[in-house]
Design goal:
Elements: E1 2-5, H1 8-15, E2 19-25, H2 30-44, E3 51-57, H3 62-67, E4 75-80, E5 83-89, H4 94-102
Parallel strand pairs: 1-3, 2-3
Antiparallel strand pairs: 2-4, 4-5
């Protein structure tokens, strides 16, 4: 299940433990809308059963995107136990997502 983050407090609760993929997006963003089904497939097909996927709308919760200096969307941040492990910007295919998380 992809968790839609609505508040900074909610974000704090989820991103600090385990493997967490954070998708920074906006409803008006075409590449974000194209990426969404791939993230849903990644979640639904359980390629990484312990991975939590968080969705952060940069317009609804700007303090979180500001914290990481997000300037382009979609941006994906991968955290491991609360520490930023790596990031990528732009549309990703399902295969791209799998490679990004595996390495």
């Amino acid at each position: 299940m992809i968790i839609e983050i609505k508040t900074p407090e909610e974000y704090e609760k989820y991103y600090q433990t385990g493997d967490v993929l954070v998708d920074f997006n906006a409803v008006w963003c075409g590449p974000c809308r194209m990426l969404a089904p791939n993230l849903e497939d990644l979640d639904r097909l359980q390629y990484f059963p312990n991975l939590k996927i968080l969705s952060v709308d940069v317009d609804k919760v700007p303090t979180i995107s500001g914290r990481y200096g997000i300037e382009s969307i979609p941006t994906l941040l991968l955290f491991k136990n609360g520490k930023l492990y790596k990031s990528t910007v732009g549309y990703q295919t399902l295969e791209d997502l799998k490679r990004f998380i595996e390495k």
